[in-house]
Write a structure and sequence with these properties.
Chain lengths: ~290, ~290
């Protein structure tokens, strides 16, 4: 059983609407909030050798990335800490607070518990003008599809290209980019943390159209042999860039860096260089 | 090291304001929201023999209880599940959704992760008229101090009085009571999940006054020998009642059941029958 199979159970019990986007959207009075929660723990989510400060940073960064993927500005973070060693707490919190503050958010609450392995659950609330919310659905044939940043760097670091260690240990959520893309009118968006291929398939699930991208258009981690670099960029996980579709006419003066990698098509398929793209990437496997 | 010592580290890094109340209070446009997060896991939080459905219920109930303690109406729940066995997921979610819906909230999002022991982190958002927010601070000498429900039932169940099993396995958060007390003008409030004594000491920390209660006024779990019943009610943990102070003149027609157990005094002390009350109850202990 894998994550995506378990998700069908969630949809059965909790409903469909709750599972398609990076965040839930709630209307609070006149204002729109997006909320999301992410659980990370030592044995499956934190790369070997990560420091406590970096673990705290990462827990907040994944949540900020989900908020950015909706076009929202992160504002409030809650951090639940399942603590393996009391002496780790201070550095974890310092990392969390510093990541939140760097991107305009505050850590406003949390919980503490003793745990056999370090477990961090961050919950984030972002605010957004309802007109600027971007969901996973909304793509239209004729839109271009683009990404922010260079995918594959985290995966490259994971297999030993230490020059990309920052991408793995101190990821930078694309907060400014997400807000700008929401205002610019991106039609669909999500973050690419499970890898570019699986993210495109997630967009396929959420839309009535398809996506056609080209290997040669995808930016690659530099100074890595071409075959490996392409593997990392297309199928590697752990990156914090945003994948989005947008009508090409809106890509004017949006003030952020991005790379167009293909187009939205009417066929219900994900194509790489014209052929169906292999559906593989980062997926948790479950026993039992 | 215990929970309360670790809290001083949290206050050092994240600031004081974030740690005194059951929830963080945030202003969202014209509306006021309270948010809180709670981490529960198998080895330290779930009583032996709990079912998956009950674990899901309990995870949401602790969060609803924190929201109720601020006088707010719970609206949105996020549930992060660190899952030991994939086959447990459905029942856990059913318990969570049913607890949320019973008290007027919806499960709007969450996360899934594989974990060696079942770990549930629920985050809740409640809404409240700013004039009805009740914090831990705000008590004044001359207020009465009162509780909802009968404390000690969960502790009694834990040591084998099976007639109170529901209090332990399917706790009922005092949601209606919290909302009513917020509207009625309670001056300070919190839930008593760490036990009555420790909760009174928490109120002492948050206020410039003290609290004087009387054993004979505290309602006791019935059909339990008196000495034991008093021990459970004063020092036992796991109950979901609310402890609050309120000017006695406001205790008219508030439409809920409560028991006055003492008064707020100007001395900076917690007194039981006129003597300092032992400061003991449910505290996590940490190694290292």
């Amino acid at each position: 059983m894998d994550d995506r199979e378990l998700l069908t159970i969630v949809r059965e019990v909790a409903g469909d609407a709750q599972t398609f986007d990076d965040c839930a959207v709630i209307q609070l009075g006149s204002c729109c909030a997006v909320i999301t929660t992410d659980m990370l723990h030592a044995s499956t989510d934190f790369p070997r050798g990560i420091t406590c400060r970096q673990a705290g940073w990462m827990a907040v960064a994944v949540t900020l990335s989900d908020i950015a993927a909706m076009g929202a500005a992160p504002r409030y973070i809650l951090l639940a800490v399942g603590l393996d060693q009391p002496r780790h707490l201070k550095k974890i919190l310092e990392g969390a607070v510093s990541c939140a503050e760097r991107f305009g958010a505050s850590v406003v609450g949390g919980d503490l518990d003793a745990h056999t392995e370090l477990t961090l659950v961050s919950t984030g609330i972002g605010l957004v003008d309802p007109r600027s919310i971007v969901r996973r659905s909304g793509a239209n044939p004729g839109d271009v599809i683009a990404i922010t940043g260079t995918p594959g760097r985290a995966q490259a670091a994971l297999v030993g290209y230490t020059q990309f260690a920052c991408a793995l240990y101190e990821p930078i959520p694309a907060v400014m980019e997400g807000i700008a893309l929401g205002k610019a009118g991106a039609s669909a968006m999500m973050d690419v943390s499970d890898g570019l291929a699986l993210s495109l398939y997630d967009l396929l699930d959420a839309n009535d159209c398809g996506f056609s991208i080209y290997t040669a258009m995808v930016p690659l981690p530099p100074e890595v042999p071409l075959d490996e670099a392409r593997e990392f960029a297309l199928y590697g996980g752990g990156d914090f860039g945003l994948l989005f579709s947008i009508p090409p006419g809106l890509l004017v003066d949006i003030g952020i860096s991005y790379t167009v990698i293909g187009t939205v098509i009417s066929d219900r398929a994900v194509l790489l260089d014209g052929d169906p793209m292999p559906k593989r990437g980062y997926v948790h496997q479950w026993n039992g």
